[in-house]
Amino acid sequence: MELPLVSIIIPIYNSEKFIAEAVESVQKQTYHNWEIILVDDCSTDNSSSIVLEMMQKDERIQFHRLNTNSGTGIARNLGVSKASGRYISFLDADDLWKPKKLEKQLNFLKENNLPFTFSYYDWIDEDGELLNKRVEAPQNLSYRQLFFCNYIGNLTGIYDVSYFGKMEISPIRKRQDWMHWLSVLKKIKKAQAVPESLAFYRIRTNSISASKLDLLKHNFAVYRNFHGYNFGVSLLCMSGFLFTQLIIKPLYCKSI
């Protein structure tokens, strides 16, 4: 019996320091029926050269380039449009997967008859060293819970195209991953997590994760623009977000 193909979308922007390691973490998967679709968002470094060289050695790797710098959402959408797999998964150019990530998630989907799942993940620094922190999530994550906090690490999500179709990603430059998973849970109501860490999320000093003030601003924009709430309702939603972020989510962040 032929195993289903998994399409892995990796957007690239000036990622020469990390991209080879990210691709290699896919190549080391114990599940082998996958394709990588890399989309370069007009990098000005050697990212594309590194990828093109890797393509010559692995026919499962595709490479596409945007004509203008358009943001991660647009890059991911181009990748999704090129995908041939039954399943679509995402990985950023500076993050990594553990070797059994795909195998364990696909088994979990099949055993529980699910169209979507995600997993826990660990933090690493820019040099790939463990930061001794694991981000977990509610085992049965509801839309309401996700509404007030993005528990789903984008590098861990995987969905069944035969159930959802190819889902469009918001072109908004920030927090489009949260909006994407909200759209998933709006359809299925609850999501089950694989209850173990299957990936490494890299914390970078210039990343959105490193700026709490920017995070608040972009999350407010999700309530205001994605959900379409007025200013007052968006402020109320942000109060719920802050409560969850400060009181509830830390309960799911473990030292390892």
From TrEMBL:
Pfam families: Glycos_transf_2. The chain crosses the membrane at residues 228-248. Residues 7-114 form the Glycosyltransferase 2-like domain. The keyword Glycosyltransferase does not apply. Keywords: Membrane, Transferase, Transmembrane, Transmembrane helix. CDD domains: Glyco_tranf_GTA_type (cd00761). GO terms for molecular function: hexosyltransferase activity. This is Glycosyltransferase involved in cell wall biosynthesis. It comes from Flavobacterium granuli.
